Recover the amino acids of this structure.
């Protein structure tokens, strides 16, 4: 009885806690969306890494030349059923440090070609958004730069691979923005041109489903508890008085 009485209270508490988390997440997403709406900023020559987290999701405008020699194929990744990689290439900025640009998805058969094609690009202008090192989960394998195997975007390690501080490379990670429609994307996919990401906030918000789960569980176990209580009372009432 005691255990069954505690469960509704405990699950109610968890539900309320998830309501708080939900509010926090919504506020965070709002804040990031507001950041994304702002005008692109030019990146300074030398970027202060310690203030970078404040600028996550800000749009930035870059100019420079690709360094395809130090390109990284991050993957495997899947886009609309096709397997491939994200092509990450250092951008050598004439007027500043070198930064890393995730150019987007290329399918497997075009990966090497897309990497090499960047050498012919000359000076490019890139619109992207600032990101930080990607979170990895327990199932993400370790990267093996020496074998060219990169499973997750470890910004520090990628900057080191591209030459590091000695070569004026800063651990700054930018995702190239692609705003074309799906027809443009299919054309790119068929021609081995990287497909960047749309400028949207892609944070997962599953707190609402947790709220619903915990509160339903709380309601359900309350009912069970009440039924048991009533049964108990009735059983008692039927006992012969002495
Ligand atoms: C980077 O920014 C922090 C915080 O604003 C500041 O304390 C620090 O001096 C800056 N570093 C450089 C090298 O400018």
């Amino acid at each position: 009885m005691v255990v069954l009485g505690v469960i509704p209270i405990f699950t109610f508490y968890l539900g309320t806690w998830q309501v708080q988390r939900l509010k926090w997440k919504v506020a965070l997403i709002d804040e990031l969306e507001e950041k994304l709406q702002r005008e692109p900023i030019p990146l300074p020559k030398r970027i202060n890494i310690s203030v970078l987290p404040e600028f996550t999701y800000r749009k930035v405008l870059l100019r420079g030349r690709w360094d395809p020699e130090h390109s990284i194929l991050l993957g495997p990744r899947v886009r609309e059923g096709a397997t491939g990689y994200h092509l990450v290439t250092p951008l050598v900025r004439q007027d500043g440090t070198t930064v890393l640009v995730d150019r987007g998805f290329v399918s497997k058969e075009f990966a090497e070609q897309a990497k090499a094609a960047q050498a012919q690009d000359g000076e490019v202008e890139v619109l992207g958004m600032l990101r930080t090192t990607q979170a990895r989960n327990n199932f993400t394998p370790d990267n093996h730069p020496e074998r060219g195997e990169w499973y997750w975007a470890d910004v520090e390690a990628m900057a080191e691979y591209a030459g590091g501080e000695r070569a004026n490379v800063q651990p700054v990670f930018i995702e190239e923005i692609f705003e074309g429609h799906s027809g443009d994307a299919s054309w790119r996919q068929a021609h081995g041109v990287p497909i960047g990401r749309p400028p949207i906030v892609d944070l997962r918000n599953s707190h609402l489903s947790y709220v619903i789960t915990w509160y339903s569980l709380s309601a359900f176990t309350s009912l069970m508890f009440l039924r048991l209580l009533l049964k108990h009372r009735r059983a008692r009432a039927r006992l012969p008085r002495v």
